[in-house]
């Protein structure tokens, strides 16, 4: 039995509205393309900083990029400025609750065969990239200048970590991974460098070596 990336969870003030936005933008069968689903969890906590992770969406042409941007705006998204330079070929947007994402321009070789959801792009260290590679059993597909990326052997999006400098962490992340696996696998993650934050009813709250929270659902072993 292995650890599985089950979902990417969003803390949301209005989970239904946020689910409608992302389903409308990515399509209802998003998990078939990525291998994981999206989950929206009620939260009253305000968003106070740029998220630790975001989606990079790909484009086949400039017209395709424009269509994706227009669709996002129609669904309730908005343009935002995170310090991007005018010459960069991506458009930075936010969903209705301010969660950032990028619509990448055509011709991006790094994401060329990754599908519409090209990457889950994370703020994080080289060491945490190594941790997640071992945790999920996904090979490293990039490891250079303290930047790392992993990808499922079955394809789908890459998960990337950009290396330093890091955005200061001032509270719990609004986006987090949900994994499932056996109790023995949860212990293996601790041995790899994860920290247990708490447990209840078969759910273990943990943090990776960079302190980013994730949830681990204990899966019963076969009798």
Automatic annotation (TrEMBL):
PANTHER family linked: CONSERVED PROTEIN, HYPOTHETICAL FUSION PROTEIN
Protein name: Glyoxalase-like domain-containing protein
Domain Glyoxalase-like: 9-104, 120-216
SUPFAM superfamilies the record matches: Glyoxalase/Bleomycin resistance protein/Dihydroxybiphenyl dioxygenase
Family matches, as InterPro entries: Glyas_Bleomycin-R_OHBP_Dase, Glyoxalase_6
Gene3D superfamilies tied to this protein: 2,3-Dihydroxybiphenyl 1,2-Dioxygenase, domain 1 (3.10.180.10)
């Amino acid at each position: 039995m292995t650890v599985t990336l089950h979902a990417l969870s969003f803390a949301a003030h209005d989970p239904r509205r946020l689910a409608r936005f992302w389903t409308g933008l990515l399509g209802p069968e998003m998990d078939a393309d990525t291998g994981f689903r999206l989950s929206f969890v009620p939260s009253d906590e305000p968003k106070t900083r740029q998220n630790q992770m975001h989606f990079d969406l790909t484009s086949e042409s400039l017209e395709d990029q424009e269509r994706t941007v227009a669709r996002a705006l129609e669904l309730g998204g908005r343009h935002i400025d995170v310090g991007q330079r005018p010459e960069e070929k991506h458009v930075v947007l936010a969903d209705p609750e301010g969660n950032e994402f990028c619509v990448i321009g055509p011709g991006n070789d790094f994401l060329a065969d990754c599908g519409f959801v090209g990457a889950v792009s994370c703020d994080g260290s080289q060491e945490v990239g190594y941790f997640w590679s071992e945790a999920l059993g996904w090979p490293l597909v990039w490891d250079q200048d303290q930047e790392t990326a992993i990808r499922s052997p079955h394809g789908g999006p890459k998960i990337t970590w950009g290396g330093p400098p890091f955005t200061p962490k001032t509270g719990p992340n609004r986006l987090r991974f949900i994994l499932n696996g056996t109790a023995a696998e949860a212990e293996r993650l601790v041995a790899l460098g994860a920290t247990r934050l708490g447990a209840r009813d078969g759910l273990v709250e943990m943090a990776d070596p960079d302190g980013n929270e994730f949830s681990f659902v204990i899966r019963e072993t076969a009798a």
